[in-house]
Design goal:
This protein has 557 residues and is of the alpha/beta class. The chain is built from 15 helices and 28 strands. The longest helix is centred in the C-terminal third of the chain and has 19 residues. The N and C termini lie far apart (54 Å). InterPro entries: BLH_phosphatase-like, FAD/NAD-bd_sf, FAD/NAD-binding_dom, Prot-tyrosine_phosphatase-like, Sulphide_quinone_reductase. One of its GO terms (biological process) is sulfide oxidation, using sulfide:quinone oxidoreductase. GO terms for molecular function: FAD binding; hydrolase activity; quinone binding; sulfide:quinone oxidoreductase activity.
Amino acid sequence: MDIRTLTPAFSVAPQITPGEVAELAAKGIRTVVCNRPDGEGPDQPNFAEIDRACRTAGLEAAYLPVACGTVRDEDAKAFGQLLDGLPKPILAFCQTGARSATLWSLSEAARGRPVAEILGLAEAAGHDMKGVARRIATGGRAPTDTGEVRHEVVVVGGGAAGIAVASSLKARKPDLDVAIIDPADIHYYQPGWTMVGAGVFRPETTERAMASLIPRGVRWIKAAVAAFEPESNAVILDGGRVVKYRRLVVAPGLKLDWHAVDGLAETLGRNGVTSNYRRDLAPYTWELVRGLKQGRAVFTQPPMPIKCAGAPQKAMYLSADNWRDQGRLKDIQIDFFNAGGVLFAVEEYVPALMRYVERYGVGLNFQHSLTRIDGPARTAWFTRTAPDGSKTEVEERFDMIHVVPPQTAPDFVRVSPLADAAGWVDVDPGTLRHRSLEGIYGLGDACNAPNAKTAAAARKQAPVVAHNLLKDMGAIGAADAIYDGYGSCPLTVERGRILLAEFGYGGKLLPSFPAWLIDGTRPSRLAWLLKERVLPFVYWQGMLKGREWLVTPKLAD
């Protein structure tokens, strides 16, 4: 645990887990303060889980969530008042500790502690608060006329899309000055979590140290982004530091909004409530599947867009297949509650999926959005939308429930000048350039291109962005590269067989293999081997290394 002590009474840390609370108590901490809004990251425990662990360990816990990049004077004042009334020593945490250190620095400045002393204490604890000093001196706004750091290309996000595009850039122009901004220590292969939830993959096989994946020659700025100032070609980091760029690539992924479902955050990981959309919960899915002998299993899908639109069904099919193999399927009622109106958006794949729905006896419930959940009571409530638009509330009991949360762009994207009206990075769907801001590009889950949000889509988008960015810089003279909307969704309909859905804009089928080898409209054992053995290798050793196997970008005519 990375605890940074600023004073004997106050320390900060990056995200903690419920399992680390007992260690904090042993170290003498008496109060834990959470400054990170729930749902910022896919592997992030919710505050309710931290609060339960604190109460068990005899500690106090407080929740003062502050969205990254929006530390206001009011937040600092509230933070100072909160600290005054809590038992000490206090540990405050956020994603990296920088937000908590910023709150402390601003609240201490308001108390009259000298700025130099604040900077010295923060620096000794490993947090650069020079941005806070500028903010105090300039009335709350960090100037961006000069950047602390400058790079030709800055990539926001160290996930699949961010690292892939950085690698593609360096593969084309090895001397290009590129930086990646991302605060995470661990990079996750999120497509593998479905397999973890089915007992096929071990959780640890889906993760690597971020430092081991940053492309050679690329600078890693280990920080969270607070805001964008495109008029100044600047990215503002959490804590106030400034990074200037010539070209900007935005690929931060999306936000899982667990709090959009009332009561969900408080019951995740217990009471039969699980989700393969969090790495730490996927093993609990497998635990529930193995342990359910009879009763009712519910699977949910929220309104679009979400990452990997087939994942809610994948969990259902693999669970049902296990119960079938164990002879329990006749004793388990399976229901799928989908906020949408169809089983799958590309109609060519629906007949094969329906055969599995019938095989497993799944009850299909369309136009049902999960709105609240009571874990201890094993009850969920859905809003059902009728064809005439009227809405009614439906109450459903469960013994286990696999929940997929509603999803949005990250907060710092949604409130930025880069976003469209819905909050997504506004890009041209073909070239992936920003529609109105020169020198900015978007790819991956956070952009508004109307494609499926999958790792396969990011793999196809990365070379397109790399090509067009270098063309715009004058490094190459070819025509624009065009993204065709390709995405892939390997639908795990049973253990050992996959329906390999590959499609582009408008639902056009875009198969990678001839039909005699893999017919994507029919379940295939070869497609399962592709998912289980080949795709992880392609991800780690191909996509993230700038090797563009089968995804060389097509150029405009």
